[in-house]
Each structure stands twice: as structure tokens, then as C-alpha cells.
Here is the input.
Amino acid sequence: MKAPHIFKLSNGIRIVYQQVNNTRIIHAGVILDVGSRDENSNNQGIAHFWEHMAFKGTHKRKAHHIIQSLDSVGGELNAFTDKEKVVFYASIRDEHAERAIDVLADITFNSVFPQQQIEKECGVILEEMAMYLDNPDDSLQDEFESLIYKDHPMGMNILGRPETVKSFQRNNFLNFYKQHMDTRNIVFSCVGSLPSAEIVRLATKYFEVKSMKRTEKRKKYSRYTSRNLELSRSVKQARCAIGRAAYPNHHKDRIPFFMLVNMLGGPGMNSRLNLALREKHGYVYSIDAHYLSYTDTGMFSVFFGTEPRQLDRCIALVRNELDKLCEKELTPRQLKAAKEQIKGQMAIAEENNLNLMMMMGRTTLDMGRVPSLEEIFEIIDRIEASHLLSLAQEMFDEKGLSYLKIIPN
Here is the structure.
């Protein structure tokens, strides 16, 4: 696959496009460097609420026009918010590409935040909160992030709190938008079969907006401290999260650590944790290890649920697998297998054009470029067993790990 075409508009917005000839679908997204970590205790949840309100009316489209714009021709329009990003994205047949790009630019830059729609959407978000509280897996992850990041905005729930969500008025959205939007930190990412020149034309037509610079600085993350917490909830399973703060986006050990975590508890059924807890003992239905990296921090985590009487045994088994990685280097055969597995997973992920579009947008925003698979594979091929051992000893040290247990009441 050829390298993606990247160019910058006069306002600082970057455009990244990958031409893929064997498709009739175009996937496009606007990735904004704004997220829940840009909030404070008084406006918690406003980034996510803004994502909802972007669909509720612009200067030239009513809410129902936005909904119908792509649905009427079989396309899809969606969005999500995370700790550091708000993303608006669309998928549609390439003959309707201009329509999708027009709508994406419109909801990104021209939302009017009608007060009546704010009051209506507030109820929708409160229902989303209730749905989240009914999902033990979602609440476990959010509670664990709060434990890891304590009083920092990185630890705040993306949905916000009922009292903050109910308090938002139109001026709150306008002020948040003005304080945090920065055209230098916006990427329009696209994958499809259209010629690059056509994407350049459309992007220039719809994204050459007035330059904006954020006035509110993002609060940096400081020192991590390990913590333990046990909560009592109305659930049937005991649930547990184990982990710690980890390497940020630009850290030299990000890719080696990602490979280490993938071997420990990635999506493969042959992960060490899955073999130890599910296949050997039948203690869990699923157990996963994750590593997420952000601009100035990251998070390593292990999540699982089990019967309350088996919880301590499961924690001991997880600890045993971590200790194995800390005590002995991988054999040449194990190291080669781990490298081949993660390279295969990455190659498969790139085959999904929607995933590819998201990846290009994020890496352009975070790294300023899109590394090729071959470049990443070269990094993986250079990883040595001794390096993975030292990373495990640093990141899996018992003294540095935090534990969250949710016990049925």
C-alpha cells in the first residue's frame, strides 16, 4: 500500500488520505484534540454532550436534516468522545463523498446548540448514564481510571455527573468550544477510491475555515501512586482490575510494551492470562490485558470477572503470570511467536478501512505522521528478550500496581 497523502490547509488543519482502489465506500472522519481531560469538576461531561449536540442543528441544517443527510442514501454518520479526542465520522458510497464531507465540516464548525435541544438531549445522556451503570464492565473500567488518575481530569467519567449534565446551558457549549478548538490540532482523515486531487479539492472547499487557537491549556498529568480499593455493588460476579499508569505516546518503549501486554492478555485465545484462568481452570469467561497511551501518560490494565469465592485465586494466578514475565527472558521461539502474532493482528486491522481511517487520523494528530506497517514491523523485529524482561520488571512490579475489586453486596 502506498504512503498516505498528507497536506495542510492555511488554517493549520491537516488532511490525510489513503487511496484504496478496491472499494466503493469512503470512510471519513474529523479528529479533534479535545476530550474529557479538558474538563473540570464544574463542567464534567461537556465534551461528550457537545458531541451529541453537534447533531442537533447548525446554521444551515436542522437536526432532522443532519440525520437524513447520509441515512437517506444508505450512509452512516456517527461520533464518539474519549479522554483526549472528539471524533465525527461517516461511511458512504464514494459517489456521495462530497455530501459526507460537507456534513462532517458543518457539524464540526457550525453547531448552534439550540437550548430546546440541550434540554431534550440532557434526558438522553442521563439514560446513557443509567445504561452504563447497568454494565459492570464499563463501570469497572471507569472506576479503575478514577483510581489510577485520582483527582486529575484523566480520571473523570467521560459521561460526566448528573448534576453537571443537568446544569449546561447554550453559553457553556459556546465557551467550551471557543476555549478548546484549535485548527492546528484538527485532522481530517479519509480512506477511499477517489483520486487524491479530488479529496484535496473537497477538503479545501469545506475545511478552509477561520483559524482558531485554544485559550485553555490542558492540565498535565503528574506522578502516579499505586492504590487499592474495594467497592460493594449490586452485581452477581466479583470483578477486578489490576494495573497502573504507563508509557505515553512518544515513549521509546511504547511498541515493545504493547507487544508484551498483547502476549499477556491480548485478543488471541492463546494469551497467557486466558490459558491460565479460563482454559486451565475455568475461572473466568474472559480476561483481557490492555495498554492505552495518551499524550503525557498511559494505562496498563487487566480486567476480569469471576465468582466471589474464586476472586483471590484468580488474582494469584494473574500475579503468577506477571511474575513469570519478570523472572525469566522469553526463549527465542517464544519471542518469535509473540512478534509474528502482533504483526499479524496489525496487518488484519489495517485491512478494515474504517479502522485504517481512524488510525491515520489519530497518529497524524498525536505523532505528526502515519508510520507504515513495514516501519512498525522493523521496530518489532528489533525487540530483544532482555528488553522485554526489563520492561516487565518495571511495569509489573507488585509495588507499583493498583487493585480495584467490586464485590457483590
Q: What stands out?
A: Residues 5-207 form a domain with the Cytochrome Bc1 Complex; Chain A, domain 1 fold (CATH 3.30.830.10). The chain has a mean pLDDT of 96.
